[in-house]
Amino acid sequence: MAAPKTPAQAPHIVRVPRRWFAALAALSILPWVIVAIIYVRANGAEALPPPAPAAGARTGAPGAWGRLVVSPIVVSPPLEYIPADDAPRGPVAWHLPNTSAQVASSFLAWSGMPAADASRLMSGARADGAGGLTLVPDKALIRGLAPDVRARLYTQLAKSRMNQAQAESYRFLGATAGDWFEGSSVSADTRRLVEPLLYRDGPFLHFADLESVREDVTGAAEWRRLRKALMRTSTLLIRVDIDAVDDLGAVAAYWGARGRRLDIRPLLESVSGHADDRTIDVVHLLPTLARNHLYRYPKLTAGDFDKPLLANCLWSALNFFELEPSDRFLDVPTALNTLRNDYYVVEDNFELGDVVAFLDANDTIFHAAVYLADGLAFTKNGTSPMAPWTIMSIENIRAFYKTRSDDSRLIYHRRKDL
After folding, report:
1. Who contacts 121 (Cβ-Cβ below 8 Å, separation ≥6)?
2. Which residues are registered as beta bridge partners of 201?
3. Which of 31, 84, 241, 314 has its CA 20 to 30 A from that of 103?
């Protein structure tokens, strides 16, 4: 049954440009490419607003899915997944492609960096051989950056993939450093090193200065604990409140899409008859792939290294309803052609299993997720084995990928055989 449109869903609706369909067939690699960096804007950067306080459980909007109770939780990779040590990457460098010394100086001034620090940094600037500059900040300069200055600098540096630390920064959806690190096994001394280096971009806290604290973290074990903590991911635990459901059959039809209604309804009926707790974790209502992967991390085998890619967003989205996931979707052209040929575009009344494609300003897909209900999606953000499968709001997924696109557009796809 189609989900009714809610105000929260309306901003996601897009018109599909004709050229997108032609471009989709021609794509051969995921468009995680270097983006031109923008250093100076006429109006400069505004101070970031204070973060909203961390929220506890909330009740979502009612719809064909029922009524959801949404609670934030945190997952982190097993310590066994964290390498014992990494080779240092050398001195920290900031790359400013296609940038003159004059523009670089203006950029540093625009960021709010003190003039003395900017002058010292520019005095060591060197040409990169491709029309740009490389700046080499020392540890004192990095540690001395004010949070708002760091945010302005790093969010712009992140627009070039040459600045890997910023483009692939650790990020956490939370209001405070405590949200990120409380409950972790990181020592108080290490937290005092790291927390002043955090910066905010939208709803996410970021950390991009791992190399700057490496020598100050005591011991290999603590280094691994820090990296585990930095890889913590904020996600959502979703429960369906059966007590608030007027039409159990309609809710079973929504969550039982693709021939699963007869499996889902008895479970909902069982919960509805419970005397004390009439809520059910949504994981029990999801298809096999999501049920087996949600909140978990990829388990790599030797065979995975022979594959063109590790499990990624397209693989996860296109296998959502499959009993046995197919690795043909690890081949990007195959995955994109499947999305083009076996799906049609929907602009309203989104349903469980709709594939949400995120497009940049060039109408290039850079991420895909699966619509669940009430503006929430099943997603794997990245190919790394340190990236779990999670549930996030679609707007927060957009914010997660802000370095890929400042204002990503969304196109919803539905399988033709559904």
Report:
1. 108, 113, 135, 136, 137, 141
2. 204
3. 31
